[in-house]
Amino acid sequence: MTERDLSVFFIPPRLFWVDAIKNWEFPLWNPYYYSGIPLLATLQPAVFYPFNILLLILPFDLAFNWIIILHFFLAGVFMLLFMRELGTSTTGSFIGSLIFMLGGYMISVHNLLSTLLSVTWVPLTILLYLRAIKRSSISYAIFTGIVLAIMFTGGGIEVVYGTLGLLLFLALLPEAFLSLYSENPPHPDPLPQGEREPKVISPPLTGGDEGEGGRFSESEDSSRNCAYLTKRIAYLLLAIIIFLSLSAVQLIPFLELSHYSIRADGLSYFEATTWSMDLKDLVQFFIPDPYGYGTSEAKYWSNQSWLKTIYIGTIPFILSAFFFVENGRKTLAFLLLLFFSFVLAFGKNTVIYEYLYYYLPSFNKIRYPVKFLFLIFILLAISAGIGWDSLKQNFEKNRKSGKRIIFCLLFLATIAAVIFGGLSYFDKEVKDFLIANGIKYPDYNDVNINVFNTKRFLVIFIIAVLIFYSGLRSLKARKALPYLLVSILTIDLFFAHFGYYFTTTAEEYHKSSESMGFILKDKEWPFRIFVTPKTKKGIVETTSAKDKDKTFLVPKLQLGNALSANDSKNVNVGIANFDKEIIQGYNLERRIFDMEGIEVMRLSDYEKVFAFLTTAPGPDATNLFALLNVQYVLSIPKIKSKEFKLVKVIQAGSDKNRKKYGMDKFLKIYQNLNYLPRAFLVEKYKVLAKEEEYKKIMQGKEFRPGEEALLYEEPWASSLISSSHPHPIPPPSRGRESTDFPSPGGRGSRGGGKGSVVIKDYHNNSITLSVNTDRPRILVLSETYYPGWKVYVDGQEKKILKANFAFRAVPLSAGQHEVRFIYAPWTFKIGLYITLLTIISLLSFGILKIFIYRR
Is residue 400 a part of any domain in this protein? Predict the structure, then answer.
């Protein structure tokens, strides 16, 4: 499976770290994105996620697909167990499980892997916490923390945040779930000795006790409530402590990266609330994608398009109606939770969300409110599952309330049948009417698709109502009702989402593109590439991989998001081919260095350097491409500059094709004739302190990075210099030019004259250089400056200077030096110690519990 973010955002980093581990190198750092960025700390690669061990054991492609499939199964199982914990019948539990497992949310996030891996565990987390507060069990509180840690390693930080909020709600109002227990729930599992509940206790939701003389006095009852609330909060805090301690090896590096990333100060309100649900989106619960959000980039970003589908069908809502009607006031806390969940999902379309954005800790760092829709799907699965039990009891006790609901539904089904007949008989007239009134593409989805989906909605609704009615009227039909209902629900959810995925053969996915092949032929390694912004976002011409004379007009959506399911296969193939030609994301598998990358938690300082470059009038308006070691620029617009040479045109096809479309809309590769090597020596430097000073100098053509370094501090302090002499060597004056050391530049230059830099060894977490200089100079490395990197000059640790706003530099004395950069962050080490200590403590606690229980 390669749809949407899978192909460039999730598969390449996993390929990268799996290969690194197999080569006995831990994947702490990724040098191929953004001139270097932490890998482990970014969460999305999910290095520590337990099930990702399959990637190391099985063939990668097989393991990757089966991990996705496995999580749908796990989601169903966990939801089933959770429903059983609520005392729901087997059929009701299975219905709730189906709704969550095959509902639109899970189908949508199959290609948003970090969310899929995390949201799968939410039902199990709730189950364990409910057991903790029901049974006053420390063990279950610990298990809750363990599952939270697993969720976090999956990468879905928003899911973890939302789940913690849900657990806090349950700590304060446990009756949201505990009041939903059936009248005759299954007998609870035997409790371990020492954890059995007291013989006399009121239902957990009340928090009060009753003795032989009746309920305690108001003051006594109030103190009891306070005590139970304290215990529930204590269990939640224990779970959170276990979660934080167990995930420390991942969490602490993540927090460090967060501090230095573009999200350190939070997102803008506009970005944080992008992809909020709207009232018009509620119809998508019943009709898949009526607006065709994926058919254009403008609609894609201005509407809720993060979830391709939120379809759940009519059956869950019918069953939920029985749940709310039959349980009455007991559902008030549940309704409050449902309301807050909708508030989160509606984002900017509610007043409350803005207050949460400004006042709730870390909430302003979360984007895409529609992500919180997972809470609504879980709640609807619960209400539908328990609703089935309410319906069954209603039939058995012949209650009037159930009959009223059924007859109301029967009346609506009759209207639905009339509408279906009209749509079928006047099919052409209806479609012409819709087209005439503007309910057509591009404002809406294709009229044929919308009419078909409307008919489908009506048919499912009619069938469901007839099944319910037959169960009311006939005892024999009532016995078959569970099988019929589960069957129609499965069919409805399965076929509503059939085709909501995109696959590529393994051979096709791993095959190098034409542009990759060209780049890889260049042996002047290492160097970087750059893809122009207009090339990534624009509408381009690209030819078919099979037929070079077939050219497609391809709207390039961010991160390779595929268009809606009704688009032609050829256009999807065109998009996939184009994604590979611009290399971004795919470069990781081929070990091609990219000046950019595919990552959310980008380093703030590097992002500003990137802005210095992209806001310049043209590619030759600055010398930043030289500084960034960029040798090739991939661009659709022509680059008219003597500093860039056109060396390749990609997928232009035949001469006939070239003449027909010209060269303006084809991808082109330009060589930067003035690029600098990855590491080089300079003599001149300036000490600057303010960002505005860096920006002013670096955006000017006068800035020559091969001759001068911009630093934050004086480089020639005695503690910074590498020297075998007993006294510091006097530094050269700041303004003096090197007369016998030419500025590094051009193809493969590593210095000349009486100074040279040679890369002896280059790994993900380390770089070894051999440097020879006849006088004190500053070694500049166009790799990002980031805490955790250490430098050893001739075996002695020295200080890394921050150069050119976002890169590394080391002052060197005259002579021959071996310079070794190593990434060994303390955040990873301390996190690893905490995690290991927590694992040992939990194992010891478990062994002790088993020993005590057996005695």
Answer: no
